[in-house]
Amino acid sequence: MPEAIRKVNVIGHLHPDTDSICSAIAYAYLKNQISDIEYEPRRAGAINRETAFALKTFGFEEPELITSVAPQIKDTQISKQRSIEADTSLFSAWNLMRDLKTSTLCITDEKNDLLGLIAVKDIASANMDIFDTAMLSTAKTLFSNVLETLKGTMVLGDPADRICQGNIRIGTTPEMMEGNIEKGDIVLVTNRYETQRYAVEAGASCLVVCNGASVSDVVIEAAKANGCTVLTTPYDTYSAARLIPMATPVSAEMLPEDKVLRFSVNTAVDDALKVMANSQHRFFPVMDEDGRYVGVVSSPNMINVNKKHVILVDHNERSQAVSGLERAEIMEIIDHHRIGTIETSSPAYFRNEPVGCTNTILFSIYQEKGVEIPQNIAGLMLSAILSDTLAFRSPTCTDRDRYAGRELAKIAGVDIDEYADAMFDAGADLTGRTAEEVFNSDFKVFSRGHARFGVGQGSFMTESSRKAAEALVGPYLKEAAAANDIPMVFYMFTDVKSQTTEMLYWGANTDQIVARTFGVTPVDGIATLPGVVSRKKQVIPPLMTTLQDMDEEDE
């Protein structure tokens, strides 16, 4: 039986641009209108200022960040094991472990915050410590715990009171008790009147009468006068003496919270398995996003995990995708780039069309499904089309892009030229930005054969903003190559209005590669490329051809 789909993440590529983010939001909205499954847009990296402008203009928050789609603890079968309170007796904890067939219980407070963990070995250790006669008073044990453990009946006193002093003693005869019973002790006696009376008058804080024996009115009155609690138990003295230490609360023997290995529901399964392999514990508490206890997991829980279900938009290259993709279930891919390197474990809906923007494809899907496009969604889709086609100036722009853009502008109620200028200006603003931020605003990694390289692009409405960006990003290219573990980096600084790109680059033989690819002579590390504005159509294909030719020449 196929696993039930709980939620689907709609995700764009790493270093997301406007099309990537807006596609995720627009497609998630569409899917939610026609399906009972929940679809949520996600971003795989930080958004750039152009995208932030579009989101703010049309009233959207940034999609939630997702860094990996590998299985997490929340994708496993978390055992919804009940927790216990700190005052629960060791005896009750042991019985519960037996009933639940577990060796570990978690202790929480009234808010479900984790306080600690108690294991069978902790209870066994406490039971074996026969010389700790003060354990009940040290742990401030509730009298109700003693009653529960000994199946007792309260004759005099309040079950909600606590044992705050004294040792556990066995009362035999007054002669044997003399000098051995101290004020505050818990004394176990039988039915002998003189023994009961002596224990009370010696200052016992609690009298435990065994064998279900009765307690005379005289003893009860004496107990009242001396502030002594009295209870009876059906157990004989030997059994009661063995059991009464088990009334101690688990808080006295538990592993405290700060020493407990625990996992979040968001912990990756692989990371959890590594921790489990190096731990002597079998069960591990699981906390929700708010840090509250939800259950436990063990290694067997990790065998059958529910894969995350994802839809990829605006990319189909493994190097551009979120981490852990190989362990997720890819349901759909909607893209307008070349067919890349992503593989699926089962058949998936794959829609790849030669248009200038993913949102142009989405516009067609909205029409095919008969779903009305809301004004704010239309604004995002328009923003993406204008961004990817450089306001219809890019050679990748098709008649479908122009038609979709104009129709979306009508729905969104904006002037295309005015909005495009404002959006591009927002994207080019360098105020307070670092070279790394500008570089990663729109950067992708590609591979062909043995060659791996990255190409970034920034679009600018004025020469001054373009030159400022070149001055900021140029010196960073070497560092960017190292950060992305690639030998070559090319960056396009595109003047939208003049439709000219100045390309900066870094890496071995990149000067020669640029000259050979574009038929130009770079000057001072800058190649001026008139008419080149499209990374997808005018830069990536010829670069790959050059790199492949050079690779073959070296063989």
Characterise the protein shown here.
One of its GO terms (molecular function) is inorganic diphosphate phosphatase activity. By secondary structure, this protein is α/β, with parallel strands linked by helices. It folds into 4 domains: 180 residues, inorganic pyrophosphatase (n-terminal core); 103 residues, Roll (CBS-domain); 106 residues, HprK N-terminal domain-like (Udp-n-acetylmuramoylalanyl-d-glutamate--2,6- Diaminopimelate Ligase, Chain: A, domain 1), CATH 3.40.1390; 120 residues, DHHA2 domain (Diaminopimelate Epimerase, Chain A, domain 1, Roll). It contains 20 helices and 22 strands. Strands 3-2-1-15-16-17 form a 6-stranded parallel sheet. Strand 4 and strand 5 form a beta hairpin. Helix 2 packs antiparallel against helix 13 and helix 12 runs antiparallel to helix 13. It is elongated. The two termini are 51 Å apart.
- Indicate the radius of gyration in whole angstroms: 36 Å
Cα-to-Cα separation, first versus last residue:
51 Å
Shape: elongated
Helix content: 25-40%
- Overall mean pLDDT stands at 93
Enzyme class: hydrolase
Pfam families: CBS, DHH, DHHA2, DRTGG
Protein name: inorganic diphosphatase
Catalytic activity: diphosphate + H2O = 2 phosphate + H(+)
List the helices and strands and how they pair.
Layout: E1 7-11, H1 18-34, E2 38-43, H2 49-57, E3 64-65, H3 90-100, E4 104-108, E5 114-119, H4 120-128, H5 135-138, H6 143-149, E6 153-156, E7 168-170, H7 174-177, E8 186-189, H8 193-201, E9 206-209, H9 217-226, E10 229-232, H10 237-243, E11 255-256, E12 263-264, H11 269-277, E13 284-287, E14 293-297, E15 309-313, E16 329-335, E17 349-352, H12 358-369, H13 375-388, H14 399-412, H15 416-428, H16 435-439, E18 443-448, E19 451-460, H17 463-473, H18 477-483, E20 488-495, E21 500-506, H19 510-518, E22 526-530, H20 535-554
Parallel strand pairs: 1-2, 1-15, 2-3, 7-8, 8-9, 9-10, 12-13, 15-16, 16-17, 19-20
Antiparallel strand pairs: 4-5, 5-11, 6-10, 13-14, 18-19, 20-21, 21-22
Helix pairs in contact: 1-2, 1-12, 1-13, 2-13, 2-15, 8-9, 12-13, 13-14, 19-20
